[in-house]
Amino acid sequence: MATIRATCPTCGDVELGTADVRVRVCLDDDRGEYSFRCQVCALTVVKPAEPRTVDLLVASGVHLDTWTLPQELHERPLTGSPINHDDILDFHAALHDNDSLMDALESIQ
User: How confident is the model at residue 73 (pLDDT cuts 50, 70, 90)?
Assistant: First the structure.
């Protein structure tokens, strides 16, 4: 097993095994990071990683996790004004008015 030297912001340089380090890469923008739990102070440390660093860690036997950006980032922005207190009161009143509620439900079918 390879020995990996990393830096804890509290303890300084620490030596880790490949099982102590995780690498994550975003499939959408190739952003990488690695994380480890310091064996001295138990602090979880997360640091950005350039592609070269990711390749070296994975080649050493570190586990690679991949992830994608949330789909909400690809949604188009909403238009119109934000919901305000009056809108909420109107909605509350509409929920208690059976005719308005039925009209609204029929309009979305």
Answer: confident
Query: 43 Cβ partners below 8 Å, 6+ apart?
Result: 8, 9, 10, 11, 37
8: Cβ contacts below 8 Å, ≥ 6 apart: 14, 38, 40, 41, 43, 45
Query: What interhelical angle do 85-96 and 98-107 show, nearest 10?
Result: 100
- Which pLDDT score is estimated for 41? 96
Partner residues linked to 66 by β-bridges: 25
| Domain hosting residue 10, numbered range | 3-72
pTM above 0.85, yes or no: no
Supply the pLDDT for residue 80.
83
Residues 38 and 11 reside in one and the same domain: yes
What does each C-alpha distance from 87 to 41, 92, 102 come to in angstroms? 51, 9, 19
Judge if 39 and 10 occupy the same domain: yes
Say yes or no: 90 and 44 in one domain.
no
